């Protein structure tokens, strides 16, 4: 993503996956084959769960289809409107060591299967997240000074127009998995 570009998304827990898939087909969305993503999330030293994520850099090391992707996200308006930078890396373990050396610490491992599709200028992701459940994300990339919160309102309207039961969440997958694995 170019400088000044942010990824803005909304996320929902899915109650009825078949109904969602049908609604997407009705809108002309063709979903990709399933891919497995194995993500290690990282936070800056000094940050901990319960603290605000706004303005804090977070890193992710993802392996999918034999490729390793390193991503840094910095939430702007909220946790789902982030400046994002991503690149492919050759060696996951060496990148892990580099991320730790840069002052990040590993937080949560997120493993999921994902199918993606496109609806207009939006990306649709259906994720089955180990320990957390089934979710749909609707994302759009914005440039310049466009408000992430305003774009999220537009994306939410699209989600609600699908006519299926969805429960919106503002938590990121690392927070959802962490909560699911926390001792009772």
TrEMBL record:
Coiled coil: none annotated. InterPro entries: Adenylyl_cyclase_CyaB (IPR008173), CYTH-like_dom_sf (IPR033469), CYTH_domain (IPR023577). Residues 5-179 form the CYTH domain. PROSITE patterns: CYTH. This is CYTH domain-containing protein. It comes from Sphaerimonospora thailandensis.
